[in-house]
Amino acid sequence: KAKNRGGGRVEYFELFREDLSADRIALIESVRSGLENGEFVLFYQPVFLLSDTRMVGVESLIRWRRQPFDIVLPCDFITLFEETGMIHALGERIIREGILQAKSWKKSGWDSSFRIAINISPVQLLNPDFLDMVVRILDENSVSAGEIGLEFEVTESRPIQSENALNTLVRLRELGIRISIDDFGTGYSSISLLRGFPVDTLKIDQSFIRDIRHDRNARSMIRAIVTMAKSLGLSLVAEGVEFEEERIFLQEIGCDLFQGFLWGHPLPPEEVIEFYRSTLEKS
Ligand code: C2E
Ligand code: MG
Ligand code: MG
Ligand code: MG
Predict the structure, then answer these.
(1) 78 lines ligand 1 (CB under 6 A)
(2) Which of 45, 61, 156 to mutate to test the pocket of ligand 1 (most atoms within 8 A of CB)?
(3) pLDDT at 113
(4) pLDDT band at 245, cuts 50/70/90?
(5) Tens digits of per-residue pLDDT, 200-220?
(6) Residues 6+ apart with CB under 8 A from 14
(7) 124 lines ligand 1 (CB under 6 A)
(8) CB 260 within 8 A of CB 209
(9) Which residue's C-alpha comes closest to atom 6 of ligand 1?
(10) What is this structure's pTM?
(11) Domain of life of the organism in this record (predicted)?
């Protein structure tokens, strides 16, 4: 209908109104109050070295502790945050919270080589204020990115080819923040992206890991990814490792790090130090 009237603008408004169903408005409302009430919290999944099984860091993962009791996973709300622009405010809190947490863990004595990976939406990279915001948070906390082993993970869920986003990544690396491509092997133009892309680490997507045990093609592809990454000087993390056979395969082919339910679920912050200590006792 809108098209018949020839106005792109009319069409836009109709789409917009359709999108704002009662459910969606209610959800946005509930997210707003959740943000105000501190219901968005970070959990932390342990990351392990494959060669000698040490825990060497964590990845932060956002959770919505929606009152009164359910925990909502990011797949149910991140898109909404991206579409409404609220991702910028949430993303800032996530970075601040992660940096504060890492700083306090450093004080309670974990290894200087420890790293903390924070997930960043590609939408955040398009924000011209993003870089300054990160610099400000580091300054406010009197830490450097290197001191706390800060890494940012970016997914290829949308193409990240924009000039500004790439510049931001370059600058972030100059600050000492390591950049990982998350869910590598899915999404947009994985391999061509690596040409001239400012990146340190590839995270092999869970979908490949899941197929290791019964699909020889998946094993071949993972081997090829490892070989390619090594020759480009990139480090490699396998995500979603659930079975010992997977871990052994990844170790044999020279993948660097892994995370997965096999050895560690995402934990609330107050359980991380104890978990870390328990891994030291085991080794
Ligand atoms: P991701 O960054 O690739 O995170 C890995 C996801 O796999 C996490 O799901 C984690 O809980 C899950 N996982 C870890 N080990 C295993 C395993 O052994 N088996 C299985 N089946 N799953 C495993 P989660 O926390 O639901 O996060 C989903 C996605 O949401 C993340 O994928 C990331 O893209 C996004 N996300 C999470 N936290 C944030 C955040 O703080 N900011 C942004 N922008 N996105 C986030
Ligand atoms: Mg991630
Ligand atoms: Mg991933
Ligand atoms: Mg993912």
Answers:
(1) yes
(2) 61
(3) 87
(4) very high
(5) 999 999 999 999 999 999 999
(6) 1, 2
(7) no
(8) yes
(9) 240
(10) 0.92
(11) Bacteria
